[in-house]
Amino acid sequence: MQRYKICPQLRLLFSHGNISFFALFAGKCDFTRFKKCTCMSPAVYTPDGRGNCNLGVTKPDKQVWCYVNESHGHPLKVCPDSRESSSRPGLYWSRFACITE
Q1: Which H or E element spans position 94?
Q2: What integer pLDDT is reported at residue 56 of this predicted model?
Q3: I want to staple 78 with a disulfide (CB 3.0 to 4.6 A). Which of 19, 33, 73, 93 is the partner?
Q4: How many structural domains compose the chain?
Q5: Residues near 85 by Cβ (< 8 Å), separated by ≥ 6?
Q6: CA atoms within 13 A on the CB side of 42
Q7: For 45-81, how does the pLDDT look when each residue is reduced to its tens digit (9 = 90+)?
Q8: What is the pLDDT of residue 43?
Q9: Sequence-ordered list of residues with C-beta below 8 angstroms from that of 58, at least 6 positions apart, any chain
Q10: Is the pLDDT of residue 12 over 70?
Q11: If 0-12 CB within 10 Å is exposed, 13-18 middle and 19+ buried, where does residue 81 land?
Q12: Cβ neighbourhood burial of 26 (10 Å; 0-12, 13-18, 19+)
């Protein structure tokens, strides 16, 4: 199961279709610490139609993610799992942003 470094109790429980289900184990995480970790709006997708937590996509992923809204600060500071995009240089993506919205 997948774990997040900043919130080790949060794990991917299972995926069904294009939706991922997360659960908290052995404690609880304080998601309010990451309220600035949000998705871009309007939504931005990869060139092949992925992203935006699988909402409105043409190609769904097993684990949801979105491009991070940079208006709240640099993605590496506001989202604990943000990574720079290889398909859209300069943008960062996060799975955590889909959970905290």
Answers
A1: strand 92-94
A2: 82
A3: 73
A4: 1
A5: 46, 67, 91, 92, 93
A6: 1
A7: 998 888 998 888 888 877 889 999 999 999 998 988 8
A8: 92
A9: 45, 48, 49, 50
A10: no
A11: buried
A12: exposed
Q: Alpha-carbon distance 59 to 64, whole Å?
A: 11
CB-based contacts of 53-62 (< 8 A; 24+ apart in sequence): 53/97, 53/98, 53/101, 54/18, 54/19, 57/18, 60/17, 60/18, 61/18, 62/15, 62/18, 62/20
State how far the Cα of 69 lies from the Cα of 37, in Å rounded to an integer: 7
Q: Give which of 51, 60, 57, 55 is closest to 94, Cα–Cα.
A: 51
In a domain, 7, yes or no: no
Q: Report pLDDT for 72.
A: 92
**pTM of the predicted model, to two decimals?**
0.70
Does 11 fall in a domain? no
Is 85 part of any domain?
Answer: yes
Cβ 75 vs Cβ 65: under 8 Å: no
Domain that includes residue 61, residue range: 31-100
Residue 13 inside a domain? The answer is: no
